[in-house]
Amino acid sequence: MNLLRIALKSARFRRTSLILTVLSIAISVTLLLGVDVVRKEGKKSFLSTISQTDLIVGARSGPTNLLLYSVFHIGNATNNVTWDSYQTIAARDDVAWTVPLSLGDSHRGFRVVGTTPDYFEFYGYGNDKRLAFDRGEPFDEVYDTVLGADVARELGYEVGDEIVISHGLVSTEFSAHDNKPFTVTGILNKTSTPVDRSVLVSLAGIEAVHIDWQGGIREGLDLDADEALQFDLTPTSITAFMVGLDNKALTFRAQRDINEFENEPLSAILPGSTLAEFWRTISTVEQLLFVLSVFVLIAGLIGMLTTILSTLNERRREIAVLRAIGARPQSIVMLIVLETLFVVVMGCVVGVALLYGLLAFAGPFAARRFGVDIGLPWLDATQGLIMVSVIVGATLISLIPGFVAYRRSLQDGLAIKV
Amino acid sequence: MPGSGHPVVELDRVTFRWPGQSVDTVAIDELRIHAGEHLFVRGASGSGKTTLLNLLAGIHLPTTGAIRLLGEDLAALSASRRDQFRAEHIGVIFQQFNLLPYLTMLENVTVSSAFSRGRRRDKGAVQETARRLLTSLNLPDDLHASPVAELSVGQQQRVAVARALVGGPEILIADEPTSALDADNRDRFLDLLFREAEAQGCTLLFVSHDPALARRFGRVIELGESRELV
């Protein structure tokens, strides 16, 4: 029988209050680690949403706004870019490729993106990764569509299915372009970017469904799908476009040229730096969260201190007995430190388990809701440090009840005061 | 036994006064207890009983005077040597026995080996002695692993005695062990205590406020006046 076993058995005997203490420590640890994990994973996923694209061009607006609506499909463009301006810029000597984006319609809550097959070739994300087809192939005809991985999975679509897209972002009976269904020709691999939640169609397809619409209202002439094809389906405007340059070193010059474009007011942004800038603005929130979770931890540790101090009274008997059989006052302190150590290590273990449980549970939700993909990463050095400081901090705090017990065991000795 | 012929317990002009107080809590001019003696120490509450106990166990040191146990001057030992000395030479039986409720019967008896270097070295022997002791106290093997909370009062008494005796201590101190017992249980406990103390050749110090018990002891002292009543 050694001191550790005595400590463990004694702790098990008082388990109800100790389990509650373990839980409160666990929750603090989960919060602290969770904030750190979400920050890092969120940042990684966020910053890798789009890569290989040198510029994104849209109607004049703030960079963040342009980034949000063109890449993340959050919010709406204030204005469009005329087809002529797009053509002019696409024809510049320093431009290697462009991919137009036409937004505004939706299918059962998923955004419809009008674009060209170049999208599948040039859209890059992460560390130079490209879109790939899980099954099927790019759209070819006007009424063809390619679905992002989440769209197909959540709505259960397969290649060959027909879908109807809605005008605007709310799907109602009234606003459906139901006379012109689209056929699914391909389904993309999962990318953990907003692409997964996109319905991709050709620009001509977007034009075709809008041909009998004027300013958001369906007009009298009700053209069916084939009749619409008789019209010129070249768009008059698009929402934004992505640009790849021949020479990356000249990005800033191209950006300046586009910002000073004469025919209409345009904005060109560098997606990488705008992502980073936007992340910095939301990182204040994340720092605030971190500070809050530190306070939660402090509350948890004070709760632990209170519990241990209050158990000292019911343990007076026990301590006197241990003293009588030869326990030194230092051994009594060790008993209390060991118990605290046990509680806090258990708290960390339960906290980490809780964290992974939450990540596994809430991760898919975060991906769906915010387009931020949070995996199940191993704990890194910072998170290890957080746990070590929790354990060290708790052990130091336990010296307070340890000292009280030490003083008392010296004074009371074999006398049992209850 | 070390220093046979010498008294097991010797107190010489011992006083103890808490810091800041103007009266001695304990003042004993001379007390000698010889090997195998059974001494009843009577004292009302507040008479310094507890302090005397702590002095004898080496937890407090006297303000003046000297305490020698088995010829060893406690004041000459370091605090941790005194703790060690207590672990090896003194057995204590508490009021209400105070078994550790989270340990089994056997663990309650062997727990002292956690604090005694000599006994830890010889773990198997401690187990063995403890089992033998428990069995001789009429606590059969199949009870040894049961939690003490499930034991009857009589069984708890015997475990407490076994715990105090397991290391073969020369000195056995009992602090009001009978105060929570009815007359029947009290008498039975005293019988047990005397029998075991005699079997081991222990010197017994029995501290109580209850004068009714005094008649069963060969020697009685009254605390507060530290006067010997025979």
How would you explain this protein's 3D organization?
Chain A is of the alpha+beta class and about 425 residues long. Chain A has helices at about 5-15, 15-45, 65-70, 85-90, 120, 150-155, 205-210, 225-230, 250-260, 270-315, 315-325, 330-370, 380-410; strands at about 55-60, 80, 95-105, 110-115, 125, 130, 135, 145, 160-165, 180-190, 200, 215, 215-220, 235-240, 240-245, 265-270. Chain A is elongated and about 105 Å long. Chain B has about 230 residues and is an alpha/beta fold. Chain B has one domain: 3-Layer(aba) Sandwich (Rossmann fold). Chain B has 7 helices and 10 strands. A 6-stranded mixed β-sheet of chain B has the order 6-7-8-3-9-10, sandwiched between helices. In chain B, α6 runs parallel beside α7. Classes of the chains: A alpha+beta (about 425), B alpha/beta (about 230). The interface between A and B is medium-sized, with 27 and 33 residues.
Based on the coordinates given, report the CATH architecture of chain B: 3-Layer(aba) Sandwich
Radius of gyration of chain B: 17 Å
Integer-rounded radius of gyration of chain A: 31 Å
How far apart are the first and last residues' alpha carbons of chain B, in Å? 27 Å
Q: What layout of secondary structure does this protein have?
A:
The complex is a heterodimer of chains A (418) and B (230).
Chain A: H1 3-13, H2 15-47, E1 55-59, H3 63-70, E2 81-82, H4 83-90, E3 95-107, E4 110-115, H5 118-122, E5 124-125, E6 129-130, E7 133-136, E8 144-147, H6 149-155, E9 162-163, E10 182-188, E11 198-202, H7 203-210, E12 213-214, E13 217-218, H8 225-228, E14 237-238, E15 240-245, H9 251-259, E16 266-269, H10 271-314, H11 316-324, H12 329-370, H13 381-412
Parallel strand pairs in A: 4-11, 8-10
Antiparallel strand pairs in A: 1-15, 1-16, 2-14, 3-4, 3-15, 5-6, 7-10, 8-11, 9-10, 12-13
Chain B: E1 9-16, E2 26-33, E3 38-42, H1 49-56, E4 64-69, E5 72-73, H2 79-89, E6 90-93, H3 105-110, H4 117-121, H5 123-136, H6 153-165, E7 171-175, H7 183-200, E8 203-208, E9 219-222, E10 227-229
Helix pairs in contact in B: 6-7
